[in-house]
Amino acid sequence: MSENMNILAFDTTLNKTYIALQKGDVVDERVIESDERNYHSAYLISAIKDIMQKNNLKLQELDLIAVNNGPGSFTGIRVGVTVAKTLSKELGVNVLGVSSLDILQKTYEISANVDNVSVKPDVVTDARKEMFYFKPSAFPAGLQKTNAENEDIVLVPYSDIHNRITQSTVVCDASSFLKLKAAFESANKPEINLINFEEDNINLAISLLNIAKKIVKEAGKDTFQGAAGDLSWYTLNPRYIQPPPIHKK
């Protein structure tokens, strides 16, 4: 099962590069921040090489690669997905794309300790153009999703976000924090607990790794079909959702 698999998980889509490697039942991790010279995703290849060498594991020995495929930084999505697709194609390794909002929701979910039920927060990140990316804890009937196939993220106008929140805890990025705070105060919802994930020292690749392990476990030991679908490199696509901004020269 997934507990004995070799899984490489990485995320260059958000505020840092997050990496986690499971070798058998041992997990190693890295977190890389941007510096004055380079954006954090520029270090992805060298970081993968370092963590693989430290754990005496060859890329050919990987059973699965998991990657955050967006939404988020356009450059970060492109880097992460390109590296994941290339490794998967060249090595013949299964690859799984997980959305950034799924990862954030998994990171901050709280176990209710009642019938193994977990309480998931709503997740909001800034999509720019006066819009938020929104992933509710549960999808209400009638809520229109994006056009992406099987997508469970919606685009919500800044002005309407206070009407969409169903949970008392909302996880967001730094850009959304002040916008959400103002929106909730004007809507008389001061009881909402806003969590800016960028202020927490949490390796999000661990959550990505755990999501991947759960999918593999549900799909079965000898197959990667079912809940995961086809995990071939050519099925991995970026979740840009909101078109990247056009910069005029």
What can you tell me about this protein's structure?
28% of the residues lie in helices and 25% in strands. By secondary structure, it is α/β, with parallel strands linked by helices. The strands form 3 sheets. It has a 5-stranded mixed sheet, with helices on both faces. The chain has a 5-stranded mixed sheet with strand order 10-9-8-11-12, sandwiched between helices. The chain has a two-stranded antiparallel ribbon with strand order 6-7. Helix 3 (100-107) packs across helix 6 (204-219). The longest helix has 18 residues, at 74-91. The radius of gyration is 18 Å and the shape is globular. Residues 141-150 and 222-228 have low confidence and may be disordered.
Write the layout of secondary structure elements.
Layout: E1 6-11, E2 17-23, E3 26-32, H1 44-54, E4 64-68, H2 74-91, E5 94-98, H3 100-107, E6 110-114, E7 117-119, E8 122-128, E9 131-135, E10 154-157, H4 161-164, E11 169-172, H5 174-186, E12 193-196, H6 204-219
Parallel strand pairs: 1-4, 4-5, 8-11, 11-12
Antiparallel strand pairs: 1-2, 2-3, 6-7, 8-9, 9-10
Helix pairs in contact: 3-6
